[in-house]
Amino acid sequence: MTERLYYTDAYITTFTARVVERLNADGRPAVVLDRSAFYPTSGGQPHDTGRLDGAVVGEVLVREADGAVIHVLDGEIGGPEVSGAIDWARRFDHMQHHTGQHILTRAFIETANAHTLSFHLGSEDVTIDLNRTDLRPAEIDAAEDLANALVTRDLPVRAWFPSEAEIAALALRKTPEVAGALRVVRIGDFDATACGGTHVARTGEIGLIKVQRTEKYKDMTRVEFRCGGRALRDYREKNGLLLGLAGALTTGYREIGAALDKLQAENRQLRADLKAARQIVLEAEADRLWAAAPEHGRARIVTQAWAAAERDAGELRQLASRLTARPGSVALLGIAGEKSQVILARSAELPGPDMVALLGDVLGDLSAEAGARRGGGRPDFAQGGGASASPERLAAALERAAAAVRAALESA
């Protein structure tokens, strides 16, 4: 068993130890020491990082078979003894957040009768999952207020291995099934629970506990929060963003909401105006295309291909609908490009041809690969595409379709 120095002193940053085993961890060198201040990943808390002599400690884990702490390194180290150094910034961040989690967990119990089911401490996000999905904003605020009141009280935080008699008198919030001695973390007179993690000595060191957001997750509520330095950095980032928005909107930051509401209303009106203007333009374009189309008996056949930058599929459908709303009209339209689009339509009263069948012929002209051709519709309106085609190749395919239409009209 590795003697875990952080159990008695979470503030330890350097230590010496004896190498008791050298091994390989997924192709990387690793060692087991007789004593270590490196915290291994467990209980929702990530491992410490740092150095052993000249090697970087990139991962620390517990071997289940015997509880040994394995230090995974970026290179070999020599000698029977080593000097270790902990990345203190990472360690203290974890201490702030783990103690903050205990406080916030207890605060939700006290204010909302919501119990923590799981805890995750990541490099960015820190979360607890609560056993309720109906938490109201006022309950979340109340828990946050209570948690920060505990920070302000600067309560002592004690982590130790109590006797069985002490454990019976502690009224622990959570007592897990563990083999061997049980480690307890008690925060003043507010909370006591079993925990093997690293913690601050007093709640004032946490600095701030801030709930970032909540969301429903499965049958729980996931609460994301930040403490201490992370909370400060988050506030600094969001404050900078808020002031930047206020500057861009030429308003005070408290008026940003109203300014955005005004911008959104103006945007909706502009989009409506643009849509109306675009409908007028499309109607005029349909008139022009129809007037320029050659007459064939009692029908006019409009054949037109555009480059992808000139037209989108939505406008293509609108043009086809406007053209075929006129009696005796056929619209053979397409957009060339990486994935071409084709619409073949005719006025309902015109006899044949079947536009779905004709679409198959056009798409077959564009590509021999069946996977690149897809489409369908009804006898008087079909659309599809998918094949790559140049404007010239698409125009030629549409002209062949026009010839088929003319032949069908002559035989009708």
Can you tell me about this structure?
- The protein is of the alpha+beta class and 412 residues long.
- It folds into four domains: 3-86, Elongation Factor Tu (Ef-tu), domain 3, CATH 2.40.30.130; 92-245, Threonyl-tRNA Synthetase, Chain A, domain 2 (2-Layer Sandwich); 251-281; 293-411, Diaminopimelate Epimerase, Chain A, domain 1.
- The chain contains eight helices and 21 strands.
- Helix 1 (88-112) crosses helix 2, helix 5 (256-292) packs across helix 6 and helix 7 (355-366) runs antiparallel to helix 8 (391-411).
- The mean pLDDT is 93.
Helix content: 25-40%
- Assign an overall shape: elongated
Oligomeric category: single chain
Strand content: 25-35%
Give me the CATH superfamily of the largest domain.
Threonyl-trna Synthetase, Chain A, domain 2
Give the averaged pLDDT, no decimals.
Answer: 93
**Main sheet record:** 6 strands, antiparallel, barrel
Q: What is the SS-derived class?
A: alpha+beta
CATH class bucket of the largest domain: Alpha Beta
- How many strand elements? 21
CATH topology assignment of the largest domain: Threonyl-tRNA Synthetase, Chain A, domain 2
Question: How many distinct folded domains?
Answer: 4
CA-based gyration radius: 35 Å
Order of helices and strands: EEEEEEEEHEEHEHEEEEHHEEHEEHEEH
Alpha-carbon distance between the two ends:
94 Å
Total helix count? Answer: 8
Write out the strand line-up for the largest beta sheet, numbering strands in chain order: 2-3-7-6-5-8
Low-confidence stretches: none
Do you know the CATH architecture of the largest domain? 2-Layer Sandwich
